[in-house]
C-alpha cells in the first residue's frame, strides 16, 4: 500500500507552518549564547549495537505492517463499495485535499481500536490529527465510513473526545468531516450514558471560548451524529451524498409506514434552503472542501512567523536511535538519546552534579526553546527535588517541557524514614508537574512504571501530547515484579505451580505491550525513535496557541 497517498510520511521530514504563541516560545537566535554540546558518541561498529539495531528494525517492520493494515480501514471490499458504488472519497483522501499543498498531517493514535474485546476497529473508526488549512493549523476529525459504516464504537468516542481536548487546550480550530451512522447500537450502553453527548457539549464550550468549529457533511449524519453539524459554527453539506436526520427512511417506514427518500427526509437542499441546519450547499466533495478552506480563512487568527536564523540539526544521526531504543532500563543511554533529538545536540544542563538520576536542562527542538526532563536512573529524593525545581523554572519562564520517560524502580527498602522522604519528595515533583501551566509533551522511550511515571507526566497527569516508542512498556511494574506480587497476593486462591505463573506472565506481558495501550488510547500514537524530533517539533507548533494561563502564587522554591 502506498502510504504517501494518505498524506502520511513515516520516514520523511514533516513540515508545518510556524505560528506565534501566547506563550512566547523561545526560538534559537544567532544573538543568543549557544548551549554546550552533548557528547553523544556511540560505537556504531560494536556487535552489541549492531544486534540491537537489527532488533529495532524488526520492531519497525512490525509497526509499519500494523499501520498498513489500519490504513486499509474496513477492507478492500468496503473501500470499493465506498468509492465506486457510493462515489465518495476515502477519509484520508478527504483530509489530503483539505490540507494546504506541501504541508503534512500529524495523525494521532492511528492504531487505536486494535484487537479490542469487541474486535478490531481500524483507527477506532475515524481519523484525527493536526494539519494546515488556509494557513491555519487545525484539528481535523474524519469518520471512516468503510469501518462499520462510520458508526461510533466506545473507542471511537474516546478518540473523538481526545481530539477535542487537544484542540481546546491548544486553541486549534476544529474541522469535522462527518460520514457516520451514529452509535454502534450493540454497544450503546458503553457509549450513551456517560460520554455519548460530550462531543456536542465540547462544541458549544469551544465556540464560547472563541475556538472555531466547522463541519462538512460528506455522508450519512444519522442519530446523534446529526448534532455535530447543527452545533458547529458553520456547516457545509454535499448534494446527493450528505444527509442529516435523527432516524433514516427505514426507521420512518417501520414507525409510520411512510416511504420517504433520504434526500427528501434530510438531503442537502432541504437543510440548506428550508431547515437551515447547514449554511452552504456544495454540488460535490471538492466544492465542499473548497468552501471549508474559505471558511477557515475567515477565522482571523494570527499568522505564522519563521524562526530567526537557521535551525541546527543534531550532530548525530537520528537513525542511531533505532538500535539505542532496544537497550533496557539503566542501559538506555539517555544523553546519547537527547543528543539525537535536540538542535545541534546542545543542552544547557541544570544541576548536573545533583540528583544525577534525572537529567534536566534547556535545549531547542526545531527552533523552540524547551526544558528537557529525562530519567537516568531510579527517581531518588534528590532527583525528584531537582525535577520539581526545574519544572517551576520552566513555568516561570513560559518554556514548554519535554519529558523522556524511562522509569527505573528501586527495590523495596526496610528503611522507613528513607522511604518516607522519598515519597514526600516524589510528591513534590508530582505537584509541580500537575500544576505546570505550560505545554507538556511526554515520550515514553523505555519503561513507564508505577507512581514514578506520574512525576514524569504520564497519561493521568494530562500531557499535551504523549507518544511511545515501539520498544516501550507501560504497566504498574515490570513483568517480573508483577508476577511476584501476583503470586504473593493470589497464590492461595489461584493455586500453586508453573501454570499459574505462566498464565500471569503471559497476561502481564500482553498488557504492558505498547500496542495494547495504544489501541486503548493510552497514548497519542506509537512513533519510530528516529522520528521523535519531528513529532516533537510538530507538537510544539501545535501548542503555540495553548490556552493555559500563567497562574503562579509563589516564586521559585528551593529544596
UniProtKB/TrEMBL annotation:
SUPFAM superfamilies per UniProt: ClpP/crotonase (SSF52096)
Swiss-Prot/TrEMBL GO biological process terms: L-leucine catabolic process
Chain ranges of the CoA carboxyltransferase C-terminal domain: 313-555
PROSITE patterns referenced in this protein's UniProt entry, alphabetically: COA_CT_CTER, COA_CT_NTER
A GO MF term: methylcrotonoyl-CoA carboxylase activity
Domain CoA carboxyltransferase N-terminal: 51-311
The protein's enzyme class: ligase
InterPro entries associated with the record: AcCoA_carboxyl_beta, ClpP/crotonase-like_dom_sf, COA_CT_C, COA_CT_N, MCCB/AccD1-like
Catalytic activity: 3-methylbut-2-enoyl-CoA + hydrogencarbonate + ATP = 3-methyl-(2E)-glutaconyl-CoA + ADP + phosphate + H(+)
A single Gene Ontology CC term: mitochondrion
EC number(s) stated in the UniProt entry for this protein: 6.4.1.4
Pathway connected to this protein: Amino-acid degradation; L-leucine degradation; (S)-3-hydroxy-3-methylglutaryl-CoA from 3-isovaleryl-CoA: step 2/3
Protein name from the UniProt record: methylcrotonoyl-CoA carboxylase
Organism: Actinia tenebrosa (Australian red waratah sea anemone)
